[in-house]
Design brief:
This protein is mainly β. The chain is 12% helix and 34% strand. The structure holds iron/sulfur cluster (2 copies).
């Protein structure tokens, strides 16, 4: 027999985008299931248009954006909170 205890755990997520490394492919925008990231009009010094965080409150910290970015420009930092 198993006994379970249910607990709500909240996490704080920080999404770091290294704008110098970004090449504007927008894979991060397409692969974020929660639509946290959007296209922006801002460009980096190389001329690539950048993504921006428009709904960070919806982020689950799934790290898909970090894994999918071919330029390793995204880092997802998570901090647990009870
Ligand atoms: S996946 Fe990486 S390189 Fe592509 S737009 Fe997003 S941050 Fe930039
Ligand atoms: S960690 Fe997941 S939910 Fe958060 S921005 Fe990245 S892909 Fe979207």
């Amino acid at each position: 027999m198993f006994l379970g205890v249910k607990a709500e755990v909240k996490i704080m997520v920080t999404i770091l985008i290294d704008e110098e490394w970004c090449r504007g492919c927008y894979l991060c925008v397409h692969f974020c299931a929660k639509k946290v990231l959007s296209r922006s009009r801002r460009r980096n010094p190389k001329g690539y248009t950048l993504p921006e965080l428009t709904a960070l409150e919806k982020c689950t910290g799934c790290e898909s954006c970090e894994f999918i970015c071919p330029e390793l420009a995204i880092t997802v930092e998570k901090e647990g909170q009870e």
